[in-house]
What we know:
The protein is α/β, with parallel strands linked by helices and 494 residues long.
Amino acid sequence: MSVRNVLTWLEDAAASAPDAAAFDMPGCAMTWRETAAEAQRIGSFLAARLAARTPVLLLMEKSPACVCAMLGVAYAGCFYTPLDSSMPEARMRLIGETLRPGAILCEEKFASAAYRIADGAAVYQIEGISGEADPERLAERRRGHVDTDLLYVLFTSGSTGVPKGVSIAHRSVVDFVEWACGALRLPEGCRFGSQAPFYFDNSVLDIYCAMRMRGSLHLIPKADFMFPARLVKRLKEERIDTVFWVPSALTAVANAGVLQGGVLPDLRRVFFCGEVMPCRTLNLWRTALPEADYVNMYGPTEITDVCAWYRVDREFADADALPIGFPCENTRIDLIDGEICVTGTCLSPGYYNAPEKTAAAFVRNPMRPQIPEWMYRTGDLAAYNERGELMFLGRRDSQIKRSGYRIELGEIECALQSAQGVDSGCCVYDGERERIVCVWTGGADEKTLKRQLKERVPKYMLPDVWLRWDELPATGSGKIDRVKVKRIYEHSQH
Ligand code: AMP
């Protein structure tokens, strides 16, 4: 029977591997049976209070309790939005205004913040949810379910400053996870070392693939990513065999020199997504873990998580660009004027409560005018290489024109990130002064870096401003935060 609701996987795991660990971290272990029972209890509580298809905000740490809350919301036939508890309350309110949640589920320590942003929504503290599961009520909600019902809404930063709520239906997660488990050759009982915060789409793969494969989730504290030696120790001790991280996190570990050969014998799958993976980072990992499987995945939140993938199958020089490869099964990618446009079940039905933003990004397929076939315009540029693989070229909006030349900042960044003495780096454009600003961390000084870039990019692409910083700002999901880099640079100019 085909799966139409992600809860089917949870119930399968609870029935066929009840005592297998769903979460397995020091001081916090929970089986799949316990996870399902807790989700059903929370779901029954919510179903008694909220109508089906009501939005629910989650103001919780990244924890097993938060996963139980998400699944509880799904049991109630509702959909969830995890909030970054460290974001300013003003932004939480903006999200609340768009989402109009029926309830906020929170941990005790966030209760006062929850009340401050509630604006009419009920606030429930997760520790205070009492009562047993009510199988009849849950069954009734399930009978009313269709697979186009939403599972979650994730808010991403909008260019206008108002966050956009990407809504995703059960069927998109089902389609994606069934593909991922097979294509990525995930074994039963695999052990996921989860880096992505729950408000970032990469976490969807961690949570639901672990569930589908009756595996375990190891939620790695954010702080560990600042201490690579501690992080590697954790991966080893918890025998983590699969990671799906942003390249910045893999780069930090590789650069710290803590990846000697043999240090992580259990780690078999190193997957990444979310930003460009520098081949130099990939090569450091491959040298230390030659047996592991490496897969580059590409995709925005609007298409659930991943729409193109490339399993590393050959050698790359440090300065090469890594392909994003091929469309995932049941997903179509068209390049329209070089822009990646995606069609398929993976598509979000739109930005929640934002018809104009939806209409701008989700368009009718111009090649199929006979029917309303929807296409998501990613704003990313790509081209095919001579092997027929998709190559990511950068954001449409990171394409600049200077002295008549069309320049992709991404191309300069690729050269920058592979330069000797550069740990990490990026380029931003100061349009007012028509300057390309290059910022990096690592031992290289301006002169040696300039010399290296001169060998890699045409003269008209060479940056005008060279700034070596101690560290680069990161977004909540761990990628390089270019908006902040630009803001810091601009601030220094005034
Ligand atoms: P998000 O919606 O936060 O997942 O961000 C999606 C954006 O990250 C995409 O539109 C791309 O610009 C970028 N991105 C994601 N995966 C990759 C990748 N493998 N290589 C390069 N850029 C990527």
